[in-house]
């Protein structure tokens, strides 16, 4: 009978807490969005599944060895932790001891003692959970977003941008959404609705960059505790670009403006395409070294593509490698979908601010394109401005579609690809500025 | 006190961030334009010798429909791979 009781107490059902149950429901709805609604399925599917794994009671897949030892709360080991911290565990009950030990560990700031406690956990035989290991390898190290960025670079054709370099301004204007959202986030904290510090505000703002790897990279550096919510918001809103953008684009333009036909792009030579990534990298090296990891990998990928001499590498970077990385990145993000990090008011704030960031970025991009149309001799259709938020190539397709509604003969796709890839560079630069300014 | 500091910091970050993004991309526009001019200047005969691959812009409007369909399909595939 005792054995059966032990088995029951070790079961998932016995240990399932309400927050875990809610998180499992949320992760199932992410899987639903990915599979049925086709919302960025390549990422939301592994993220949702990673979230499910992370919330399995007692398995502790998302916990590090040390966190695991605290969750188990084995008396002998806890006694040695307490000795190390100079605390006395009175031994009355497990709960009483937890109340003594856990706050002390939470407020512990000395990294040396922390390291010793972690070593003690390792010696006692605790190991990092699987998802925790994936997180350390892919996100905490910064590796996975950068590898994905290299793959994106290998997929990107800078031809339309090189044919009309001024579209880079549209990519810059659309980044206003990022910084306006930072201001919105600190504004909300000032009003006392939620509590974000400046680093967290910056990490939330980067959702407006509409670029998944950049958002994850910045969040992992500035606010790892918000990473789950930020990644989920970034990828779900990217999937919603065709719904979010058109109303804003139509509201800010007249039908005549939407029908503007742009002049044909000139053909771009191979040499220009080869030298461009190198030129970008030189500028990054000169002016913004903190953006070097992101833009460096991006330029490497692009150079592999355009040089034409390493087709095998280029092919790997944009197919096999990016796919492998995506699987582990998704699972690692999923490991952050645990109740104590996700079921907070902050998550609602992040979801709300994220969509505002997208909206403002779209609006400033369109307004900038209107301004450029007034100032330059070459006609510029304001609709291509919205593509400056990045979200390649979805945002460019949206520009094209809205343009076709106004003038069925007007194909804006190639024109919109220029600001679209400019947006990728723009959000990486914005990320670099934030990292430089805040860390 | 604390909240005003946070707001100021947010505002500074916005000014600096937007300023920097615009400065950087302006430099990039200048650099790209210069680079293209130099390359096109020095490789004048080359485009004749090996003409660039036809892009959307070099084709006539009526062929565009077909091309756009192809591009859209390609992008759709690319999107799925992302």
From TrEMBL, chain A:
It is found in: Cell membrane. InterPro entries: OadB_MmdB. The chain crosses the membrane at residues 12-35, 42-66, 134-156, 168-194, 200-219, 226-244, 274-300, 320-342, 348-368, 416-438. Its cofactor is Na(+). It comes from Marinospirillum insulare. Heterotrimer of an alpha, a beta and a gamma subunit. Its EC number is 7.2.4.2. Belongs to the GcdB/MmdB/OadB family. This is Oxaloacetate decarboxylase beta chain. It is a multi-pass membrane protein. The keyword Transcription regulation does not apply. Catalyzes the decarboxylation of oxaloacetate coupled to Na(+) translocation. Keywords: Cell membrane, Ion transport, Membrane, Sodium, Sodium transport, Translocase, Transmembrane, Transmembrane helix, Transport.
From TrEMBL, chain B:
InterPro entries: Na_pump_deCOase (IPR005899), OadG (IPR023424). This is Probable oxaloacetate decarboxylase gamma chain. Heterotrimer of an alpha, a beta and a gamma subunit. It is a single-pass membrane protein. The keyword Metal-binding does not apply. Catalyzes the decarboxylation of oxaloacetate coupled to Na(+) translocation. The keyword Ion transport applies. It catalyses: oxaloacetate + 2 Na(+)(in) + H(+) = pyruvate + 2 Na(+)(out) + CO2. Its cofactor is Na(+). Its EC number is 7.2.4.2. Its main location: membrane. NCBIfam families: oadG_fam. It is found in: Cell membrane. It comes from Marinospirillum insulare. The chain crosses the membrane at residues 12-34. Keywords: Cell membrane, Ion transport, Membrane, Sodium, Sodium transport, Translocase, Transmembrane, Transmembrane helix, Transport. Coiled coil: none annotated. Belongs to the OadG family.
């Amino acid at each position: 009978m005792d054995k059966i009781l032990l088995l029951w107490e070790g079961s998932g059902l016995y240990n399932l807490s309400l927050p875990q149950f809610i998180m499992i429901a949320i992760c199932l709805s992410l899987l639903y969005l990915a599979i049925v609604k086709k919302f960025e399925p390549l990422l939301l599917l592994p993220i949702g599944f990673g979230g499910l794994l992370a919330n399995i009671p007692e398995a502790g897949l998302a916990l590090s060895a040390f966190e695991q030892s605290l969750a188990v709360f084995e008396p002998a080991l806890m006694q040695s932790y307490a000795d190390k911290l100079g605390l006395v565990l009175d031994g009355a009950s497990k709960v009483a001891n937890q109340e003594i030990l856990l706050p002390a560990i939470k407020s512990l700031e000395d990294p040396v003692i922390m390291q010793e406690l972690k070593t003690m956990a390792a010696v006692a035989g605790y190991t990092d959970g699987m998802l925790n290991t994936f997180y350390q390898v892919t996100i905490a190290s910064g590796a996975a977003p950068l590898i994905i960025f290299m793959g994106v670079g290998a997929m990107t054709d800078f031809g339309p941008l090189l044919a009309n370099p001024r579209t880079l301004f549209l990519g810059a204007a659309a980044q206003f959404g990022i910084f306006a959202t930072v201001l919105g986030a600190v504004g909300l904290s000032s009003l006392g609705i939620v509590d974000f510090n400046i680093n967290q505000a910056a990490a939330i703002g980067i959702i407006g960059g509409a670029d998944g790897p950049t958002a994850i990279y910045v969040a992992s550096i500035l606010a790892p505790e918000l990473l789950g919510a930020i990644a989920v918001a970034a990828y779900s809103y990217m999937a919603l670009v065709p719904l979010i953008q058109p109303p804003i684009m139509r509201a800010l333009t007249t039908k005549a403006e939407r029908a503007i036909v742009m002049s044909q792009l000139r053909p771009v030579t191979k040499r220009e395409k080869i030298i461009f990534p190198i030129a970008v990298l030189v500028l990054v090296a000169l002016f913004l070294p903190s953006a070097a990891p992101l833009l460096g990998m991006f330029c490497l990928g692009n150079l592999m593509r355009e040089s034409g001499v390493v087709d095998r590498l280029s092919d790997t970077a944009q197919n096999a490698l990016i796919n492998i990385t995506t699987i582990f990145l998704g699972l690692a993000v999923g490991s952050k979908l645990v109740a104590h990090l996700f079921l907070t008011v902050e998550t609602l704030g992040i979801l709300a601010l994220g969509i505002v960031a997208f909206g403002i970025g779209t609006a400033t991009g369109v307004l900038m394109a209107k301004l450029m149309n007034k100032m330059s001799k070459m006609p510029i259709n304001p609709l291509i401005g919205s593509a400056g938020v990045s979200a390649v190539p979805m945002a460019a397709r949206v520009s094209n579609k809205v343009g076709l509604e106004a003038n069925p003969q007007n194909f804006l796709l190639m024109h919109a690809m220029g600001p679209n890839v400019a947006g990728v560079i723009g959000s990486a630069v914005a990320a670099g500025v934030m990292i430089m300014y805040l860390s | 006190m604390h909240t005003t500091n946070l707001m100021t910091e947010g505002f500074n970050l916005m000014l600096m961030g937007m300023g920097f993004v615009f400065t950087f991309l302006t430099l990039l526009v200048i650099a790209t334009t210069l680079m293209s001019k130099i390359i096109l200047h020095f490789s004048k005969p080359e485009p004749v010798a090996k003409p660039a691959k036809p892009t959307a812009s070099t084709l006539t409007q009526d062929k565009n429909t077909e091309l756009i369909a192809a591009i859209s399909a390609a992008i759709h595939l690319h999107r799925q791979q992302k």
